[in-house]
Structure prediction request, 459 residues.
Amino acid sequence: MAKTPLLDRVLLFGSAFTDELKCANLQDDINLEEYETVIWQPATWWVGLPDMSVRAIGQIIGSIEGRLKVLTHWVMAGNDLVVVLDRLSPFVYAPPISPQDAEIFDFRRVPPLSAVDFDDVTGERLRFAGPTSLSGFFDPWLDRLCYQEIISGDHLAPLFTVSAANNRSTQIVGGIVPYGKGKLILVPPDNFDPRSKARSNYLLGLARMPALLRQGTGELPSWLGNFRTLQTSKAQQAIEQLSHQIAAARAQIAALEEEVSKDAWTQLLYAGTGESFENAVMRALSELGFTVVSGPNSRADLVLTDGTRLAAAEAKGLEGSVKELNLRQTERWVTEVNHALVSTEVERRNDIDLHRYHECLCQIGVALRDDADFECKGLMIVGTFRKTPLDERGTDYPDQLARPLGRSRICSVTGLQLFNILMESRDKPELKTTFVDMLFETNGPLQGWNDWALFLSNS
Prediction:
């Protein structure tokens, strides 16, 4: 069958079972100046190769790279390249110079396809989203198209998008990219049989498409956009005003969301456990003015200083009240830190825990000393009843623990109290020093600071 004049200037780098298209391999030495449109099926680059070994591919990779450069310059000169985004996976080859070193070639990483970004995602639900000049053009094939790539990039105009279940985002699977004076037209593949007439018809459609695009862009004069009806002008002004209002509202929402997220971590002080609770306690103490570091593994949870005084802390989130084990562990941490304060280099070399405590002390800037009056304070910070609503919680200290705790030199604070102190300090920053002194000077349970309703609403 003779080619129509329209298709006489179209070249297919690929295969089609029709006489209406001129077909060639990418690496063939074809003079592209005879054509104004090229359809490229990258997945067919190997057609006609007798040997598909990595060594044999390495022998022709230079030819492929050279032809891609020619093709790129041809597009930039003002021509149209239609690329079927089918099976663009990279392939391995052995360079002729060093065949023992395998390398990878990826069409998507070199011009002209490097003009867009690719993400390997497959699917079958897509919809036409292109210019009006192509409205209805793809209808005969739309339900047989699929996609293997989501594409993105500057100046990428959508041609096909994913038919998503919601409208939260737009994923482009086919599009048009200006490239120099020409265009890259990226289209999804079909799932027809390669030898079928339907496949040939799709390729023939792609061959005619660039001419329709050119007609669509050239059928109206460029000055036409300067004139519009009065109704259109009023509507456009209203759209612009609403767009500004939406932008301002979104900025306000973003600022408020940032404010909400900024305080989200404070909830861990009265509902967290494990490492997340420890981190929240560390963050709260730091905001109050302490220098805090995590203690050695399986020893004190936190080691901290206000610059002149030192403390070791037990930080635990519990589902019930404070336990005697928490008190005993805090007392142990105090003893260990005090030992580390006066330890010798030999002792630290022979005791890994003393060595790690020494590292913690160095991190917070506390020097070793033999001053008998300088001792470590014990802090027991327990997030009690973390799974119980705030207005339903019980007594934090059982009777059998309250008495020995009151006789100790340990200051015990609940996570909820620490939260309330933190909130108060934000309203009155000048009270931070008072709060720090209070934690060092209190022996036994901290009194007060239990009224969460001052800082939290129960909605």
The chain has two domains: 7-219, 264-454. The longest strand covers residues 172-179.
